[in-house]
Amino acid sequence: MPKFSRLTVLLLLIALVLGAVGAVAAQDGPKILVTGRQMGPSDIPTLDPSLAEDVPSNQIIAEIFPALLRLNEETVAVENGVASYSVSEDGLVYTFSIMPDIAWVRYNAESGAVEQLTAEDGTPLFVTAQDFAYGMLRTLDPATAAPYQLVWAPWVQGGVEYATEAGSVEDVAIRVVDDLTLEVTVPRIAAPTALIYSRWFAVAQPQAIIEEFGDFWINPENIATYGPFALKEWVRGDGGSLTMIKNPFWAGTPEIPAPALDEVQFRFLDETTQFTEFEAGNLHVAEAPADAIDRILSDADLAAQYHIAPGTCTYWYGFNVEMAPFDDARARRAFSMAIDRQAIVDNVTRQGEIPASFFALPSLVAAPTSEMFPDLGISSDAAAAQELWNEYLTETGQNAADIQITLYHNESALHGAIAQAVQQMWSETLGVNVQITTADFATYLDQRGNYQVFRAGWCFDYPDAHNFYYDVPFHSDLVSENDTHWSNADFDALIDEAFLLTDPAERAAMYAQADDILVNVDAAAAPIYYYVTNDMTAPNVTRTYSMITTEYYEKWDMN
Fold this sequence. Notes:
Helix content is about 35%, strand content about 20%. The protein is an alpha+beta fold. The chain folds into two domains: about 35-270 and about 540-559, Periplasmic binding protein-like II (D-Maltodextrin-Binding Protein, domain 2), CATH 3.40.190.10; about 310-530, Dipeptide-binding Protein, domain 3 (Roll). Strand 4 (about 85) and strand 5 (about 95-100) form a beta hairpin. The longest helix has 25 residues, at about 5-25.
C-alpha cells in the first residue's frame, strides 16, 4: 500500500476516534434546563426571603434557601425539609432538629465553581439553628418592612407584639437550644401550624453577609445560600434571566435529593414569547398561551408535550375602597357582577379555568364551594349589575359617561387580553370609560394600591382556606398591607373563630359567610377564575408536576 494511502487511513482513524470522543462529550456534557415557567416578562423582584411576596421570587428562594419543613409538590403533604420536628404534648412547642453539615456556599465566577464559605480562620461555615432564628426574627423586625411580616407574626408567641412595636424581640418565643436544635412556641393550637414552617419567610439567612452588603447582599457575587442549587448569574431587567447551578456540597435527602440537572436557566418572557421559543427549541419548558391551545391540541406532537392540571391560584380584581366610585359597595358589586366570568374562561383564557364565585380556591382544606353554598358568593349578572349601578348613579347625581375608571395590571399578554375583555363588559353594561394602565412586575406590586381597580392573583402559601382569608391580606390585622384598603369587623370575627376550629366542615361554613361578605356584601374583591397549570415540556425532560406553584428542579432530569 502506498504511503499516501496509509496516511489517509491513519487520518481517518484519528477522525473516527475524535468523533467518538466528541459524541461522548456531548452526551456527558452539563445538563442545562432552560425554562420560562412562572417567571413572566419582568425581572424577579427580589431573592431576599424576608422581602419576597411573589411567585417568581419564591420559586428561586425555595431552591437556594430550603425551609425547615417542605410541602411535597405532588401530594401537598408536609414533609421534612432541612429538619425533622416534634410537637409538645400541649401542642404549643415545635422543636426542629436541623440536618448537620449543611454548607453555606457561593458561586465563584472566576473559578467557575460553587465554593463553601469559611470563617476568617478558615473554618467551614454550616447552617445552624441561629441562622434560622435570625431569618425568622428579621422577617418580624419592623425595620425590615417585610411584606409577609404580619402573616408570619401570629404563628409565634410574641410575634405580633414585636412586629407592631408593642413588644420587644426578647419576648418572641424563638429559642436556639444548640447549633442544630430550634424551639418555637406558638400562641394557640391550629390545624395549619406545621405548614407555616415550609414558607420562605422563615428560612435561614446569612446574618454576616446581610450586615456587610446591605441591600446588595442578594447579588450573585455576594449572596450566601445552602440549597440544592446556588445562584450562578442574574441578568437584571425585562428580558433578562437567572441561572441556578448545582450545589456540589448538597448531599441530598429523601425529600430534597441532590440535583441531576447541572444548571437551570430561567428566562423572563411572556407566555407568547415562551411558546415561540419553545417551538424553536430554545426552551425546554414553557407556559402555553391561550391563543395557541387549539393548535397545540390539534397537533399530535405538541399535544404529547402539553400538560394541564388544577392550579393553585385565584385570579381576581381588587377595588380600592378609598377611591370613587368604589368607596360605595353598590358600585363595587355592580362592577363585579358585570364581569362575565364564563365568557372570559371560554373566549379569552381558554385553558379549562373554572369561573369563580368564591375567593378561596375550592381545593383547599375547609374552603367553601358554590356546590356547598349555592346561595352565597358572587355571580355574573349583567341585568342586576345595571340596576344596582343605576341606583348608585341616581342617588349620587352622576352620569355613567362622566366616570373614568383606571384598571391596572402588570405587563402580560394574558392580563392584557383579560383587561380588554373586562373593559368592554364594563363599557357595554355600565356605560363607563375604562383606561387600562400597565407596569413591570415590581412597580405593579408597589403601586397597585394607588389605583381604582387592579388585577391580582393569589396562590396559596399553604393549602388551607385560612391563607386566602387572613393572609391575602383581608383581615383588619393586616389592613396596612391590603391594597384594597378594605376591612370589616364581621369578616374578622368569622375568620378568627374558624381558625380555632378543627372540623373542616364547620370551618367551611364560617368561611362561606366571610367570603360572601368579601365578594358580595362588601364586594372588595371580584374573583374571576381559578387557575389551571398548562405547561409545554420537551420530550427529553423527566419531571414532576407541582400542585403548589413551586417546582423542585432537583427532582428533574434530562436525557
